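User: quick one, sequence for these C-alpha cells?
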C-alpha cells in the first residue's frame, strides 16, 4: 500500500516560495557552504538581487542578532564576488519566537511568513504584486509536491542548458581569419616593400597617419588595424588575440564579434588621429584587442555570478597593466587603446549579451555607440 506524503505548513510554504521565485521571477539558487536551513536565490537583473528564505526557528533577539551578522558577512562576500556596490535583499523568516522583532535595515526587507496564507504580507506584495496569485495551486499533497518539483527541475534544466550553450567553446573561425590576414600582410611588407619597420612601407600599406587620414584617406582608419611594425609587435598582438578572441567570439557569435572587433579598431584609429602627432604612423590591432577586453568586461558584468572573480583577478588587472605600460613607455599609441576599449563596451551594449540584454538595452547601446562615433569623428576631423 502506497503511503501518502504529508507536507507540513513550513515545507509547503518554502516549496511555494522557491517555486515562485525560480519559475516566475527568474531567480537561481546560490550555493553557500556552511549555511544550513536557509535557501538563497539570486537574480542580478532584479531590483532585489537576493532572496533569502530562513526556515529554522529563531528563539530570541540574541539569535536574531547573530543571524543578521551572518547575513551581512555573506552579503559582503557576494558583493565582492559579483563586483556589486550594493545588493538589496529580501529576507523571509518562517519561524520566529513571540518576542522577536525584525529590524528595519537599509537595503534589506525582512518579513515573517509562517504559512501560505500569510504570503500576502504587505512588504512582499509591494515588491512582487503577483506573488499571491502565482502561489495558488489546485493540487494538494503528493500531487502538489510532484508539480512543484517538476516545474523547478524543468526551469533549472532549461536555464542550465542556455548557460551551457553560451559558455560552450565554439570554433573561432573569425579570430583565425583575422590572425591570418595580419600575418599575410606582415609577410607582404617584406615581399613588396622594405619591411614592417620601414615607415614608407607602413604608409604605403595603409598605416594610420593623421595628416593623410584628415585629407581624405579614410581607409587608413580600417587598414591600419591589420598592420604591425616588427615581429615583436605582431607576435604580442596575435598572441593576445589568440587568447582573448575565441572567448568573445564564442560569447557573442561570429558576426557580432566581427562588428565589435572592427568598431573597436576604428574607434581607436579615430582617437589616434585626434591626438597623435601630424605625421606619426599608427598601426596594430591593439585598439581592437582592447575593445575585446572591454567587451568581456561588459559580458562578464552581466554574468558576474559566474565570471565576477575572473573579472576582478584577471581581466581588469590586465587592462590596467597594459594602460600603465602604455603611459610609461614611449612609442605606444595609448589613444588607440583607450578609444578601442570604450568602443568595445558600447559596441557590446548595442549587440547585446545573450539571454541577458533586453531590446531597450540594445537600443540604448546603439544610441551610445552612435554618439561616441560622432564624437570621435568630430575630434578627429573638426576639432
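Assistant:
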Amino acid at each position: 500500500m502506497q503511503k501518502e506524503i504529508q507536507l507540513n505548513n513550513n515545507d509547503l510554504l518554502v516549496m511555494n516560495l522557491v517555486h515562485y521565485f525560480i519559475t516566475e521571477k527568474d531567480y537561481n539558487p546560490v550555493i553557500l557552504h556552511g549555511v544550513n536551513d536557509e535557501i538563497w536565490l539570486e537574480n542580478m537583473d532584479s531590483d532585489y538581487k537576493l532572496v533569502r528564505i530562513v526556515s529554522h526557528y529563531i528563539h530570541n533577539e540574541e539569535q536574531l542578532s547573530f543571524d543578521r551578522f551572518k547575513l551581512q558577512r555573506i552579503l559582503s562576500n557576494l558583493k565582492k564576488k559579483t563586483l556589486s556596490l550594493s545588493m538589496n535583499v529580501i529576507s523571509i523568516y518562517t519561524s520566529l519566537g513571540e518576542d522577536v522583532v525584525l529590524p528595519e535595515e537599509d537595503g534589506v526587507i525582512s518579513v515573517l511568513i509562517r504559512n501560505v496564507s500569510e504570503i500576502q504580507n504587505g512588504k512582499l506584495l509591494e515588491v512582487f504584486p503577483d506573488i499571491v496569485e502565482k502561489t495558488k495551486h489546485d493540487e494538494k499533497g503528493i500531487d502538489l509536491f510532484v508539480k512543484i518539483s517538476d516545474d523547478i527541475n524543468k526551469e533549472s534544466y532549461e536555464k542550465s542548458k542556455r548557460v551551457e550553450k553560451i559558455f560552450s567553446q565554439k570554433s573561432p573561425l573569425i579570430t583565425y581569419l583575422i590572425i591570418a590576414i595580419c600575418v599575410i600582410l606582415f609577410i607582404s611588407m617584406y615581399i613588396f616593400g622594405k619591411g614592417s619597420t620601414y615607415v614608407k612601407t607602413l604608409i604605403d600599406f595603409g598605416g594610420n597617419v593623421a595628416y593623410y587620414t584628415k585629407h581624405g584617406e579614410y581607409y587608413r582608419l580600417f587598414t591600419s588595424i591589420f598592420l604591425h611594425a616588427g615581429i615583436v609587435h605582431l607576435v604580442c598582438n596575435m598572441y593576445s588575440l589568440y587568447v582573448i578572441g575565441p572567448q568573445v567570439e564564442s560569447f557573442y557569435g561570429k558576426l557580432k564579434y566581427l562588428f565589435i572587433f572592427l568598431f573597436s579598431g576604428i574607434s581607436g584609429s579615430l582617437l589616434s588621429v585626434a591626438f597623435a602627432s601630424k605625421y606619426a604612423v599608427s598601426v596594430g590591432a591593439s585598439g581592437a584587442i582592447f575593445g575585446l577586453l572591454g567587451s568581456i568586461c561588459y559580458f562578464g558584468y552581466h554574468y558576474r555570478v559566474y565570471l565576477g572573480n575572473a573579472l576582478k583577478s584577471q581581466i581588469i588587472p590586465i587592462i590596467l597593466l597594459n594602460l600603465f605600460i602604455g603611459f610609461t613607455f614611449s612609442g605606444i599609441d595609448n589613444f588607440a587603446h583607450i578609444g578601442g576599449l570604450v568602443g568595445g563596451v558600447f559596441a557590446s551594449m548595442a549587440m547585446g549579451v545573450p539571454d541577458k540584454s533586453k531590446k531597450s538595452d540594445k537600443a540604448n547601446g546603439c544610441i551610445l555607440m552612435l554618439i561616441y562615433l560622432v564624437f570621435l569623428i568630430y575630434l578627429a576631423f573638426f576639432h
